[in-house]
Amino acid sequence: MRLPRFEYLRPHSLEEACSMLDEHTGQAKVMAGGTDVLVELKKRGGGKPRYVVGLRGIPGLDTVHFDPQVGLRVGSMATFAKLARADVVRKRFPLLWEAARIFSRPQIRHAGTLVGNLCNASPAADAVPPLLALQAKVRVVSARGERLVEAESFCEGPFQTVLAPTEIVAELIVPAPSERSGWSYQRATKRTAEDEALAVAAVCLEFSDGNCTVGKGRIALASVASKPMRARGAEVLIQGKQLDEDLAREAADLAAREINPRSRAEYRRLMTAYLVKKSLLEAGSRN
Amino acid sequence: MKRILELTVNGEVRTVLTEPQRTLLEVLREELELTGAKEGCNVGDCGTCTVLIDGEPLLACLTLAVEAEGREITTIEGLAQNGRLHPLQQAFVDHGAVQCGFCSPGVILSAKALLDANPRPTEEEVREAIGGNLCRCTGYTKIVEAVLSVSHALNTGGTK
Amino acid sequence: MTPPSAIGSRVPALDGVAKVTGAAKFTNDLSLPGMLVGKILRSPHPHARILSVDTTQASRVAGVRAVVSGKDTLGIKYGTIDPFMDELGLAVDKVRYIGDEVAAVAAVDEDTALEALKLIRVEYELLPAVFSPEESMQPGAPRLHDHVENNISGRILIPAGDVEKGFRESDHVFEDTFRSGWITHCNLEPHVALAASDLSGRLTVWCNTQVPFRFRADLAKTLGLSLGMVRVIKPFMGGGFGARWEILGVDFCAALLARKTGKPVKIVYDREEVFSASRRKVPMTVYLKTGVRKDGTLVAKHCRVLADGGAYNGLGPQIIASGATQLTNLYRFEHFRYEAYHVYTNNPVTSPMRGFGNTAVRFADDSQLDRIARELNLDPVEIRLKNAVQQGDVTLLGAKMKSCGLSECLEVVARETDFHSKRGNLGRGRGIGIAAGVYVSGSKIWVPHDSSSAFVKLNEDGSVSLLTGTADIGQGSTTVLAQLVAHELGISPQEVTVIAADTDVTPFDLGTYASRVTFIAGNAVLAAARDAKRQLLEVAAEKMKADPESLELRDHGVFLKGTTEQAMLLEEAVVAALFSSQGIPIMGRGSYNPPTDYDPQVRKGSRTLAYAFGAQVAEVEVNLETGQVKVLSLGAAQDCGFAINPMAVEGQVEGGVTMGLGQALYEDCLMEEGKTLNPSFAEYKIPSARDVPEIRTYLVEPIDPEGPYGAKGIGEMPQLPTCPAIANAIYDAIGVQIKSLPITPEKILAALKEKELQGVSP
Description:
The complex is a heterotrimer of chains A (287), B (160) and C (762).
Chain A: E1 7-9, H1 14-23, E2 28-31, H2 37-44, E3 51-54, E4 64-67, E5 71-75, H3 80-85, H4 87-92, H5 94-101, H6 106-111, H7 114-120, H8 128-133, E6 137-142, E7 145-150, H9 151-154, E8 155-157, E9 160-161, E10 168-174, E11 181-189, E12 197-207, E13 214-222, E14 229-230, H10 232-238, H11 245-258, H12 265-285
Parallel strand pairs in A: 1-3, 2-3
Antiparallel strand pairs in A: 4-5, 5-10, 6-7, 6-10, 8-9, 11-12, 12-13, 13-14
Chain B: E1 3-9, E2 12-18, H1 24-31, E3 50-53, E4 56-59, E5 72-74, H2 87-94, H3 104-117, H4 123-129, H5 141-155
Parallel strand pairs in B: 1-5
Antiparallel strand pairs in B: 1-2, 3-4, 3-5
Helix pairs in contact in B: 2-5
Chain C: H1 16-20, E1 36-42, E2 48-54, H2 56-59, E3 64-69, E4 94-95, E5 101-107, H3 110-118, E6 121-126, H4 133-137, E7 152-160, H5 163-169, E8 172-179, E9 192-197, E10 203-207, H6 212-223, E11 230-233, H7 249-261, E12 265-268, H8 271-277, E13 280-281, E14 284-292, E15 298-310, H9 316-319, H10 322-328, E16 335-344, E17 350-351, H11 358-375, H12 380-387, H13 406-416, H14 419-422, E18 430-440, E19 452-458, E20 464-468, H15 477-489, E21 496-500, H16 517-544, E22 551-554, E23 557-560, E24 566-569, H17 570-578, E25 587-592, E26 611-622, E27 629-639, H18 646-665, E28 671-672, E29 675-676, E30 694-700, H19 722-734, H20 745-757
Parallel strand pairs in C: 1-12, 10-11, 13-17, 15-16, 20-21, 27-30
Antiparallel strand pairs in C: 1-5, 2-4, 2-6, 3-5, 7-16, 8-14, 9-10, 9-12, 14-15, 18-26, 19-20, 19-25, 22-23, 23-24, 26-27, 28-29
Helix pairs in contact in C: 10-11, 11-19, 15-16, 16-17, 18-19
């Protein structure tokens, strides 16, 4: 299972990368950390692209910094390890930090990127629910300009995104959650501890007071449908209400009915309810 | 199309002529005859190809050789210095943490990356650090023991 | 100061440094000038007739040096013993599983070989296929092999006593059916073979084999060569566990292609091939009926095993016999009936994997025993002690227990894990369970020998070389055997160079399986070392004008017994012999064939001289909402006879227990009409470091009268009690018994739900 032959292109700027995609439209594959792309190419040929465009040579693309105007800016080459090491992520975006910290295995954390995980668009993408819960935006660039896409709309289905073949993700922009908010990231694996997710829940609740009255809440899930999703019904249910054990259970049960798993469906519903309840209560405790 | 790559491996610059789709694992094993990194699965699931790049543990089978240029690559062959084993290597031998040895280079490098970043890991942190290195022989017990023993040795007599 | 004794000490693996520095060469690390890459074409169909194989296009690809298929072979079948030999190196007229080898290519590089593979045209006539033993045994089911009716290629029937009478005399009778999963070895090193033919046609094959001499014999046979024309060498090897007990396509095709091209050919299986097309553990359905008195005394057992043999026999027909002795060698009872059926299916071949058919039966027996204890309100440790086989016992099937640490293991592990204070007091969702197990140290059933042999060569400088045919598959046999030699000769193990597993150089040895190495190869090595010592002392005695009986070897020298002054250095004695007028090198030789008394006609007697016992306790926490199981701790008491290297014994226990843990909770090949759906480490999960709890090992050392210094083999035994110990802990936690492996969260939730519906309080 070796890689198929391809030419490797190493742009030195995003502009250069975009023009390469224009020149080789449909024949080029963009690569960040490579942990998904290279496996795909080895196992299935991945469309046998003639060119692989590696982003590693673009300076500044791996930065993680907080911009008070817009929030956390995560460059497309920023690895999970880098996110996990960043103080600003740990302090101000703990939901994202937790997901990065426990992502996969150490070797994958040091190579894989958050943007890469999003662009791979696996239905089981572990790191995407926090982006949905934090209402992140994706800055997409091409030779013709740029656009901002809501993270929630970015994935369209299994391994499908809204990216055109001439577009590249430049960065993620994650607005800071409000002062009075609680978070939780819960993950159940399929079998062993180091395994694919069976279900993932990422919750960000903005409270309107110290009594756990929920102002707005966002409950994001992965591995329970054809793409990462928000449990909107459950979110509506808890809005304006005081979060307690009963409400959490009710919302969790509703979330479990909103999902659409393709395999181990019954167990996934059970696990979704379990994780959502747990994460709601944990988020409440962090108020 | 083949191109010339200059890879810094174990402190030495090595020149290879290779194609862009070759992985670092293939180049290490087939061009540079550094067979310590193993091919257990070739798709990033088993950890036997773990090497250190700029001190970080990475899977050589999922790293393009061409992207390893300009970075410091450390393989298991580069751990012993002047004929002396690295404390981790010695500890693995002394504690019976090596059985068939196929996973050993990868585990040792993952452990080294851990201790270099976190000299006082808990047992849980050790298990987490080697969580991406599968072993079918040892049950991990003596591997964890060996890593913790090095950590203790590094920390005895320290002020922190 | 007396240096520590070479035996009974925690000697680090002698090849450890080579392994931790990357210097150790495994087969895929080797390369030869002009080496070609080989790839195998496999059947995509579970059952089909091969109508034609057209390799012309493939042969024309630039860089391809040879393409072979069944018609390029002699069509000679191989296997274990006569009625069961049913396999070819390359299929000739039929394929019987998805993955069956049909053709092979040798080319200048992998890409070229794969390209050529795609151009091989095979015309198949699809045949109906069967995927379970039940389906396969039905009258009218497609016949997989012409000579086997109803696809039952092996059957065992062992009666002892009168089992119906036994059930009538019992106060209670329990009946259960248990199932084991589709397990595979998952050696980290993939299957590989490098074959090279020299100008005289002599073939050398380097491969990760557990049995070099067997491989030599089978390669010679299938290639039509005399034994002397084949040499098999085992380099460092990344695990065995039974996966490399028989030649497979990788070995046969590499050899065939090497002969055809005149160039070295290396074939490495990719991980998907290893998972989907190589051997598996034999999945079993185990029906067990046990009669017991109300005080817990076991009276009678009837066991029926139905095994999915896969497409060819491998060692399947032998494997199904193991259950009989696993049942009768552990707990005493009076009446027994054992039936086992090995059934062909169009699934991948099932063959030996650590435990050799004992694992599923032990899981059944010790799980059922816990149910018996619970329903009779008896303590699970006590019921085991009550029925435990003891030293001196001769079992129902004639096995003789010359050393037995079973009771001690049960007591030790129960005590060390606080079993009794924890049982019933752990709180909701937590449980603790115990189980035991027994295993052989070698197995002699079908042929009159189960031998190993060794040479101990003393070199001019007093250094020692041990030549042994044993294959160190990672378990540390190299070190243990060196320790035995070192102890005899009064040197340190580090001074022994071990040359192993080369059929040209090392003396005959059956190899590494059935946990035979420490016991059998150990005794052979001891005999060789003692022979060398005798020769040495004779020479020394002559030089010193003393009686050889008055001399001993220690601290690298010859001493008069009872004195502290060294009379002569070891090398001085060697030189004296070698450079004397007679010029005799000191070369000890030894062999060992355990004098067992097994009669294969009636299936009674001892197939081995020594049995190792063990008992394990598992503590678990079950999440009652999600069914997830966390194993909190594992305690394992292991009877190893004398521990020549306690550290190595512990390593085997820890590894075996971990393998058992994986089988209990996670491992299962998902099969769909003969296709493996999860052929990767990502989808077939073996335990990682994060899944394994603390494992505490307690060594129990009842000295075996036959073992080298009393040692017994323990390579496979530790894996046996783990599944039932964990299952019993789960049973304790949730009050319902789950009888099929792996025990998944869904099975636990389903069991809890059913219990609720039945109105039983948790």
